[in-house]
Amino acid sequence: GLGSAEGAAAMRTDIDRIRDALRFIPVGGHDERVRVAFMLKSALGEAGRDLWDEWRGDRGDDEAASVWKSASETGPLKIGTLFYEAKKNGWRDDGVYQKPTPEAIAERQRIAAERAAQEEAEIARERADAASRAAAIWKDALPAREDHPYLARKQVPPVATLREIDAGKAAAILGYAPKSKEEPLTGRLLVVPVKQGDDLSTLELIDEAGRKAALYGRGTKAGGYWVTQKLPDGDGAGLTLLIGEGVATVLSAMEATGHPAVAALSSGNLPAVAKAMRERYPAAALVILADLVKATGAPDPHATKAAKAAGGVVAVPEFGPDRDPGMTDFNDMAAHLGLDAVRARIESATRVVEHAAAP
After folding, report:
1. What pLDDT is recorded for position 100?
2. I need a labelling partner for 202 at 20 to 30 A (CA). Which of 153, 172, 176, 265 fits?
3. 200 - beta bridge partners?
4. Which three-class secondary structure state does DSSP give residue 73?
5. In the chain, what is the straight-line distance between the N-terminal and C-terminal CA atoms, in Å?
6. Which DSSP category does 47 fall into?
7. What is the pLDDT of residue 260?
């Protein structure tokens, strides 16, 4: 095998060659970015992420992490396809860097701009469609009941911002059966309205077994959030707002503290939601509720990032030395140690904010 120095040199040449070929691949739309992520991962694994980010520029930032994560090293698309497509676009692979002509660059930019505009129009259409279907389901849904199996299992109360609807009825309104990892949701579905700003953008649907699905439509969840109750007016003076990942987590935190809570519905979305809440409430104390990373038991780095981005603090669940690896969030902590323990843990975080804000 190659020695480590030779290996690093070979890897460097590979990276230079791939970077060179990438210049001939238009960035285009979402699907193109996904394809290229697969090709880069097949050759470079995680090391391909920087090249991919460099190539796509600032396109698709809000979903970049999930796109990269979903690309598989063993997928059908390999690096050979990238080289093949680059050659079709004029790349010459003779080990010498070919600078594309100004005409070729202009033509590539024209194609990329055309694709991007087309994709933006498609996404706008999908978003409008998702919002109208979400509104139709919300209108037909009934108030969530305490005996909903998901709420009962998580030991959290129903609130006015949750409703429920039969899976068959939801599918009839949507025109398709909502699925989680290819499995259709069944039974009574909890309806979780997701807002971007003040507008309903999509729904998260949670079935009796806890499987979750959002409505189809790109760009409908980025920066979107669910609230446990109607948010107050004003600049947030005297308000403590809790921001966490999942519905059950923020319901337990709200029940323990009495503070309104916001669910970002995915850890990668926490920083965007925290920033939006800070813009809305410049004077509020923001507490980010971290989930623990299952494998390590450390707080999710997205929570820390969200707190830094929005001038808030992080509250981390604490299970003691013999934590069951399945216990990762404040809902688990409430079930295991009770609401008082949750309140104490969150309050110790809020005091840090007030202290930091003092002159």
Report:
1. 59
2. 153
3. 195
4. coil
5. 62
6. G
7. 97
Helix H segments across the chain?
Answer: 4-22, 30-44, 48-56, 64-70, 79-88, 102-140, 149-154, 167-174, 247-257, 270-280, 301-310, 330-337, 339-357
**Rounded Cα–Cα distance for residues 46 and 72 (Å):** 10
Higher pLDDT, 34 or 29: 34
Beta strands at 240-244 and 261-263: parallel, antiparallel or unpaired = parallel
Rounded Cα distance between 179 and 238, Å, is 41
For Cα atoms 183, 126, 189, give the angle at the middle one, nearest 5 degrees. Answer: 35
Cα–Cα distance for residue pair 359/356, rounded to 1 Å: 8
Predicted TM-score (pTM) of the model is 0.73
pLDDT in tens, 153-176: 999 999 999 999 999 999 999 999
Provide the 10 A C-beta neighbour count for residue 68: 19
CB 291 within 8 A of CB 303: yes
Lowest mean pLDDT among 113-117, 288-292, 340-344: 113-117
Instruction: Report the alpha-carbon distance of residue 147 to residue 136 in Å, rounded.
Output: 24
Distance CA 309, CA 277 (A): 11
Q: What is the mean pLDDT of the chain?
A: 89
Residues 203, 249: Cα–Cα separation, whole Å: 18
